[in-house]
Each structure stands twice: as C-alpha cells, then as structure tokens.
Design brief:
Elements (H helix, E strand, L loop, with lengths): L1 H21 L2 E7 L1 E2 L8 E6 L5 E6 L3 H9 L16 H9 E5 L5 H10 L6 E6 H10 L21 E6 L5 E2 L6 E9 L2 E9 L5 E5 L5 H4 L3 H14 L3 E7 L17 H13 L10 E5 L1 E2 L8 H12 L5 E3 L6 E3 L1
Parallel strand pairs: 2-14, 4-5, 5-6, 6-7, 11-12, 12-13, 13-15
Antiparallel strand pairs: 1-3, 1-16, 3-4, 8-9, 9-10, 10-11
C-alpha cells in the first residue's frame, strides 16, 4: 500500500517537473462553459513564459472569472505594487491584461468584456474584421452599451482600439513577445475564428472559437486550420489546443448549430494527424471548452463527454477539462 502511494506520488512529481521544464504558455480559465451559465462563460487568459502580461482568448466572463481564479490561487505569484490603488482583481484587469482576442461576437464570448468595460483600461480588441464590426454594431453602439471603441456609432470613448486581423497573416501582439495568426471558422452559417499564438522560441498554441465539423458545416475551414497547424506538429512546436465540445454524441447533427461532439472532435483531430502520420498527435494536450450547462435532472454532460472522448481517443492525445479558476501550463 505504502509503495503504491509512493509510486503515485513519484509519477505526479515527474509529470509536474516535465510540464514545468517544457511549458511555453501559461493559461488561466476565467470561464469554461458555453451557453447559459452566466458568470462562467468561455474566457481564457494566456501569456508566454517570456512575458509578464496576459491577453484574453474570448471574454464571456472577465471580472467574475478573475475573482474565482484569485480565490483558487491562480495568481498567487503576482504581487500588486505598493503604489497601486487597486485590489488584485483590479490590478489584473487594468494592468496585466493587454488585449482581447474575440473569436466571434456571441454573448457567451463577449459578455464579460462588455460588462467590465466601464472600469477597464485602454487596450486593443483583436478580431477578424467581421467580428469587430459585430461588436461595434450590436453592443458598443450607445443603445445596448456606450461606445467604448474607437470606431462605430456616436461619440467614441476610445478605450478599445479595434485591430482587424488579416486571415493568414502574422501580426504582433502589443506589449507581449507573441505573434498571432487568425483563420476563419464556420459556425452554423456564421463566422468564428481560430487564433494561433507563437512565442519568441517558435512554439505555438491554438485557440478555437465555436465551430462545427467541416462535414456538417459544408465547409473546409477546419481543414485549413489543421493545415496551418500541421507544420508545427511536425516540428514538435504545437504545445496545446483549446477547442470546444458543446454536446454529447447523442446530439444529432441537425441540432449541433455549429458545435462539436466527442466523436466529431476526434474525427477532426484525425485530419490533423493524417497530415503528419499515425501517432503524430500522441501526448498533445487538448483542453476542452464550451461544454453546455444543462438544466435537466440527468448525468452531468461533462461526465458523459469525458467518457465518450476517452472511448473514442485512438490518437493518444491528452484531453484536459479545465474548470473555472484553473491555471494550466502548456
């Protein structure tokens, strides 16, 4: 019994040590869910190991996500300067987050950004042109909310600077050492985005906004995203992926509305594997986001999705299920 416990402890320490030595990106989950669970909607902080500043990958929950994450110790290594007038949550929002990457303008991906905007600091919003236009038209328009942007309707408060990313073109990320490339994704007839971040060492991390499988969406968008990532897989430079699985396998294709199931995710990842050969994705860390909260008195969808992914995983990838407040290294 004692030997078994020692073995487990040694294994855990080994994994932690390997992750610490090889990590290129730090992430904090400010919101892990899709759909209706307000206060815990899709939002991730990410920074390069070479940086002290974060950017956000979507912003469904911002301030509440920071509060929960601080309570769970995700920011224990960050010290608020003595001359700062802010709490740690305030300091993080105003001084440590240096921009937003918005995959698409659905409310469960932007609600936190909108609500926190009056007390936020000046920073860029990165997105494809269509996404930025949706933010201007639908939210920052002096009807739904004041116009905190530098473009759009009415008087412009100029807090947020819209940066239109050109698909397939690398761009610098202000006040970090990272660069980013974006590609459009298909989302039930609309457009979402995959962001691929690259650090100064050439390691990359991919964040997928909401998307359905190419076969259902009648699209080639996912294949294009995999093609962009394939060279980094070959070089051993792809450090991790965050991608959605909104529904269980029991959900029919006609009811996916631009989302993935466990079976569809594994099929899509198999396309990426096929570009570099069998076993090329072994041990790749894939974090699952956007699991829909259910009001039904039945088994937690996350439990079902976790089981179904394990059963379908013939790729050897490491599926991770982050909860709000979790900090992970990739």
């Amino acid at each position: 019994m004692f030997k078994n416990k020692l073995a487990v402890l040694f294994t855990c320490l080994s994994v932690f040590s390997f992750s610490a030595q090889s990590a290129s990106f730090d992430t904090v989950t400010l919101g892990s869910k899709g759909g209706i669970q307000d206060g815990n909607l899709t939002a991730f902080l990410i920074k390069s190991e070479a940086d002290s500043h974060f950017v956000m990958l979507d912003a469904g929950s911002v301030v509440n996500g920071l509060i929960v994450s601080e309570q769970k110790g995700a920011f224990k290594d960050i010290t608020v300067p003595d001359d700062s007038p802010y709490t740690k949550v305030g300091y993080l929002l105003k001084d440590k987050i240096k921009g937003y990457f918005i995959s698409h303008a659905h409310l469960d991906h932007v609600a936190g950004l909108i609500i926190s905007s009056p007390d936020d600091s000046k920073k860029p919003i990165y997105g494809l042109e269509a996404t930025n236009k949706d933010l201007m038209k639908n939210y920052f328009n002096w009807s739904a909310w004041p116009n905190f942007g530098n473009k759009g309707e009415g008087f412009k408060l100029n807090k947020y600077n819209y940066v239109d990313l050109q698909p397939g073109v690398w761009s610098s990320v202000a006040e970090t050492t990272m660069r980013v490339i974006s590609l459009p994704l298909s989302h039930s007839g609309g457009q979402s985005t995959v962001f691929i971040l690259k650090d100064s060492e050439g390691d990359v991390f991919a964040y997928f906004g909401d998307t359905g499988p190419d076969e259902v969406e009648k699209s080639s968008a996912m294949k294009m995203a995999w093609s962009a990532l394939a060279p980094f897989v070959k070089q051993g430079k792809l450090k991790g992926i965050i991608i959605e699985v909104s529904f269980t396998n029991e959900t029919p294709d006609k009811s996916l509305f631009g989302h993935l199931t466990p079976n569809w995710l594994v099929k899509e990842l198999s396309v990426l594997e096929g570009m570099n050969g069998k076993g090329s994705l072994k041990d790749l860390n894939v974090a699952i986001s956007h699991i829909k909260y259910s009001l039904k008195n039945s088994e937690d969808p996350k439990v079902i999705i976790k089981k179904q992914l394990a059963e379908a995983n013939n790729l050897g990838v490491n599926f991770i299920f982050p909860e709000q407040g979790d900090s992970l290294q990739f």
